Amino acid sequence: MTFPVLKAKTARFPRFIYNGKEDRIENLRVELEFDKEADYLTLLDITQTASELRERGVLLASFSYPRLKSLTLAIQHKDLEKEEVFPVAFEEKEKNRFLSEEHREARVRTDEIISPETCLNIVRRLGRMPTVHAYIGGFSYENREVPVIEVYTPQSKYVSLPRLITFKPTLFLSGRLKTSE
Q1: What does the pLDDT read at residue 32?
Q2: CB-CB contact of 97 with 91 (8 Å)
Q3: How many Å apart are CA 69 and CA 72, to the nearest integer?
C-alpha cells in the first residue's frame, strides 16, 4: 500500500506526556497544518479508515515505536480541524535495560531522603560506570565534600573538556544543597 505525498504547511510536536515510572512516552501530540484542502481531506480519509479498521479488529496498531504508547494527530486546514488518537505498538523490554548486572547496585532511590554520607556513597558507586566521571569538586561552608558527576562520551582517558563544553549539549543540575550553604 502506498500513501500519497502530503505537504504540510507546518508540522509541530508541541507536547508529550512522559511516564517516568514506566520509562515511556504515554502520548506524543503531532499537529499538522495544510494549505491545500485536498491534502487535509486525504489525510482525514486515511485517519478515519485506520480508525474504522481498528474498531473492527483488523488493524491492531497503526504505528510502532519503542516506548511510545499513543500518538495524537491533530490536522488543520483553515477552519477545518480533526484530532485522532492512535495506539502505538511497542514491546515491553526488561526494566533497567541500560544497566549491566555489575552496575545494578548503582540504582538511586528517589522516594526517600538520604544523608550526605549516603549521597557520597551513591556518587562513588555511580562513578564506577563507564561513562560516569565522579569526583569531589570542593567543600561546602560546613566543610562537607561536594560531589560532582559528569556523564559524557567518549570514554577515553584523555578528553578535551573545552571541546565537550563548546560542541556538545550541556545540562547542569544542582541538588542536595542546604540554604545555609
Answers
A1: 95
A2: no
A3: 10
